[in-house]
Design brief:
single chain; 90 residues; mainly alpha; 3 helices
């Protein structure tokens, strides 16, 4: 996942703004360095967007629902087989 460059720019700027006034001359350089460090750190993380997370959550929900349906159907079939019931429905 690519992180929004604007988010990195904003975060790097906030970090650079926190530099003491006596070091303001180095602020632009510090901002670039902060941005590079943040990009490197975020690149190592396995992050997903909220949209990707929500899609996968919905898929998981549907999968769980289907699994429950299949488990119930299996239980019906097992009960029918144990009872010798020949009227198993689809």
């Amino acid at each position: 996942m690519a992180l929004d460059p604007k988010v990195l720019d904003d975060l790097a700027k906030k970090l650079a703004d926190a530099v003491p006034a006596g070091l303001r001359d180095l602020q632009a350089d510090a901002e670039r360095n902060f941005k590079a460090v943040l990009q490197s750190a975020f690149a190592k993380l396995e992050l997903v967007t909220r949209e990707e997370f929500d899609v996968q959550s919905a898929v998981l929900g549907r999968t769980r629902e289907r699994l429950e349906q299949l488990a119930a159907r299996l239980k019906e079939l097992e009960t029918a087989l144990q009872g010798g019931d020949n009227s198993i429905k689809n």
